[in-house]
Structure formats: C-alpha cells, structure tokens
Predict the structure of PBS lyase HEAT domain protein repeat-containing protein.
Amino acid sequence: MKLDWENIENLSDNEISYLLYLENKSIYQISKIRNLGEDIVKLHIYKIKKDLLLSETKIADINILSEYLSLSKPEREQYLECIDKENEKCLLDEFSKTMMDIDNIEDLMVIIWTIGELKTNSFNDKLKFYASHPHGNIRRMTYSAMGKIGSMEFLPYLSNGMKDIKPQVKQYAIIAFGKIADKEYIYKLNEIYTNKNEKEYVRRAAKQSIELILDRINNER
C-alpha cells in the first residue's frame, strides 16, 4: 500500500488521517484539522496500520517490525488475534534477526511479550538468556512469556527468578512456575508462602501457584 498526497482525490478518510499522522501531527491536531473526534482519528490510524501490517505486499513497502512496535498494546492485541500463519512467520523472522541487537527496553519488552502471546518455542534459548537481563522489566516479561509457553526446560530459570531481588519480578516468576511445575516442586512455593518477610502479593502468588498445581494434578486423575 503506497500512500501520498498526489493521489488525494482517491484517498479514504482513514488514509488522509494516517498521512497527517505520518507528518508527526498529534491526534489532537488531526482531529482539529479534520473536524473529527479524537476517537475517530485513532480508529482511522489503527485501521491503516492494521492494513499495512496484514497487506500481502507489506514486505516490499514497510518494515513490519517497526510498524508493529509502533502500535499501542490494544492494537497489538487485535493484530495478533487476526494474524495469519504467513504474517506470523514474517514477524517472528524479524524478531529472530533483530532481537539481540535491540537496546530499547520498551521495544524489547514488546517482542518478548509477543513471543509469549504466540506461544512459540523457537525463542526458548533467547528467553533463557533474557532471564538474567539486568533490567527488571525484561526479566519480568521473560518469566511471563515462559509461563505462557509452558516448557519444562524453563523450570530452572523460573526457580532462580523466584529468588529475584525485585518483588514484582519474583511474583511473575512464581506465577509462571505454577503453570509448569508439578507436585515435587510445591515445596519451593511453600517456602515463599510461609515466609512472613515476603511481600503479601508475592506470598499470595505462591499460594495461587500451589493451588494451580494441585488442581492440575486432580484433573489428571
């Protein structure tokens, strides 16, 4: 999809709003220029972004990774709901090629979150690497992704995560651990649950993970 002002007579409302957006106009400015509500302008921009991402010709026309990273979280969630296998493979290929070179924490968090949402196991080794990342939010997102993927090979990394110095990171590791571990690991969670020095939400996560494991065992009988 190629958009420019030379073809303005044939542009849709969505495309006009998007071209203004590409000129670094704010949502508020576009709404004033076009005499439209801000919610309508946001919808215009979202629809064009989605069309660009899902277009069969997107590889020639746009950088799928940069476009994906520019989406808001609700937009990303909607995009992943409708993505087909071909476009999913293209996106994951971009992750694989660029992930280790990305320094921006927010972008890296989005990529790790997406890997978890897609439940792909082709990034397991990279997730193991990021489990020891110096930034707490990267570790937190990594543990969350591990829990969604559900591979037993993540257990040692999640076990280490349950000793993280940051309580919120520890909480995410505990929740993910409960999704994967079996009965023989309950003692690790119980040590956290019975530790009065832990944050209340950390202890609560341990209790919930114990219950999750026990429920899973009961359902397998």
